[in-house]
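Subject: two folds for Thursday's group meeting

Dear M.,

Sorry for the delay on this. The cluster queue was jammed most of the week, so I only got both jobs back this morning. I'm pasting them in the order they finished. Each block is the input sequence followed by the predicted structure tokens. Could you check whether the formatting survives your parser before we put anything on slides? The first protein is the one we discussed after the seminar.
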Amino acid sequence: MVGRCEWEQGEQGDSGWGRLVRQWPQPSQQIHHNIPPIVRRSLEEAARCQGAKAYTACAVMVGRAIEGMCKDKVGAEYLADGLKKLKSQGIIDDKLFQWGEALREERNIGAHAGTEAVSWQNARDGLDFAHAMAEYVYVLDEKYKEWVARRTKP
């Protein structure tokens, strides 16, 4: 295992070694601790499916992760309704809504018997989009609120 750590200068003149980051073998995508278990478990399982070349299963688990986000944030039982509620309540914007719709369609390919297959690239991209949506909803929104609060303090 190979890692990297850099010397960092803090805002208050303090300095020290930063966080150690694994470089090799390439680490798996990390899931932020603010993302709740209802979403986290499905993202982790989707990554395991993708790594095992079970691309259809990956797409299903990605859809399940987004559905978990809908259930957690707006109480929606179904993915399509949940995405609409997330958008109407301003939790996600139009671009994330479009991503969610695309992930829902890809999930449906995996969840329902048919002749279409989920490709490696679609499974990988779907997993990336799901991570980005979860980061936006659970992590970046909170960071932004904290940042605004710090800036408005006298």
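Second protein, same layout:
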Amino acid sequence: MERTDCQPLKPPARSPVEPNLRLDCRRYRGDRPCAAGVQGVCPAECGQYSPMGHRILVIKLAALGDVIRTAALLPGVKASWPTSHITWVTRPNAVRMLANHPLIDRLLPFDADSLCHLKCEQFDLCLSLDKEPAPAGLAMRVRAAERRGLGLSRYGTVFPLNPECGPYFRLGLDDDLKFNRNAASYQQLIYAAVGLDYVGQRYRLYPGPAHHRQARRAWQQVGVRAGETVIGLNTGAGDVFANKTWPPEKFAQFAELLVRRHGWRVALLGGPREDEINRRIADTCRDLTLPRDGRAAPAVLNVCADARRAGISLDELGFVALLAGCSAVVTGDTMAVHVAIAMDVPCVVLFGPTCAQEIDVHDCGTKVVTTLPCAPCYRRTCDFSPNCMDDITLERVLTAVERWVRQPRSAPETVVPLGV
């Protein structure tokens, strides 16, 4: 008769069948030969053995921009636990965005397959930074000796797991605290929430050779040559909050100002959701041209949409590589801000309903903040006229762009993993 009282097996640290297997080696894979090239079962003495050390699980799903800026934690985590193995669980689009990151040992999508084996694994530390039930619930389900950040109660409600997380948690409960009294950046808040010291650690992204090839093809498709001054206008900003960026008409006016005053080319950036907005801007600016090779060339370029029409695949890191080709980027408070910061591209960020103090531009950008007293507000609809984006003038933004175009640009630093 089948037993009904069986308890799940506690996952072993060693194989009872192959005791020489070093299951804790970061190069051991189990379903294929060792990543270091060692064939067969682990030899008794292996010069390639690299123990995982402190096993750390990071849970961060949320919006893509939030995931990117949360990567600022990685240098601090590696500094605190130099010999460590970091697993990051996130959405599939963020798995693609964080690919190639040298401080992440394993990226897992938040799906059924990952949940099956995560429940069997043992972690020394779980860092959970989302205020939503699903990721907070995962933090409570995995085996971890220590949990920091946010967890889920038996009632399905989110709460802070450690005392240091209190200020980060309370920001979501108190509008006056979030909008008026808090002066800390997001990076300062999350470092404090997990009990680490923030000293300006940066977040980085790592497009690979294929992504850079995609980006070069996209720029060539619209006739941009190396060394040209190109100002990127990132026109989208999601639809959760009202007035997170300029309307299309104002972007069109700004594009015309850039072309007529400086002769700079303008690249319209965005994904498929921004195709219609960018088409309208491009149509408005179709008569703006610049001399190139003895002929009139378009000054305002619908680069992302044109790349897609030409069959050039710009995935998440392809977009990163494309944006890295801009001399400066103008954007609302959205993912493109964090892509620009990660790639050391000067950014001019428009702030209306959201909190400018939470964004650390790391001396790589200018925050242009509305002067209206109703902001920040995080409102989902707004019928004020003029609104916070109407208040941000073309000249204020142009002054900021001019400053960054005239300033020499530094190359991103190289990040080398510790303890590997």
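Two things I noticed about the second structure. Residues 54-193 form a domain with the Rossmann fold fold (CATH 3.40.50.2000). The two ends are 50 Å apart (CA to CA).

Cheers,
T.
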